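Can't paste images in this forum, so I'm doing it all in text. The chain is below; anyone willing to post the predicted structure tokens underneath?
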Amino acid sequence: GMQTRLDKLNSELDVVNNEILAKKNANLDAEALVKKYEKQLKNIKNNREFSSLTKELEYKTLEIQLNEKQMAELNAKTLHKDEVINEVKVQVADKGEELAVKNKELAAIIKETEKEEKVLLKKSEKAQEVIEERILKSYTRIRSKVVNGLAVVSVDRNACGGCFNQIPPQRQLDIQMHKKVIVCEHCGRILVDSNILDS
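Text version of the structure:
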């Protein structure tokens, strides 16, 4: 998020810098025209030419002043954006350091749990040999579709442990009797008695 904000601020700064450049170019053009009009004033033949040239001169002079005022505002904007960008860069650097520390911690945790994971995977493979293929397929399908990867959940406080929707009392009785595989009507997870998971 911070990096996105930094990119956005940099692009805004580029836009402001382009505006400043455009104003500078407009001023250079206006100044060239002012010089041209001042030269033409020396060779005037009638009053109409004089009045139109003086109006043009005034207009260009005002345009130059307006551009300078806008450039000053844009320069102030640039300074403010630079300050904000520097603050965000510091925050990004801090978050980067924090992320590196967290990644190290995560790597250490993964290393610790690797042995346990291998043991559990072996148990899972042994259990798969005993379970009916139809039930195993539905189990893997449920696991792949749910967010947290839990296909089997317990009934806690009369609710599904996956989606937390209420389970009717009759269904709870069926689950406690362990006679058949019962799935949640709402999320499709396999429901088991909480005592099974504790043991």
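Strands lie at 152-156, 159-160, 182-183, 190-193. Residues 47-130 form the longest helix (84 residues).
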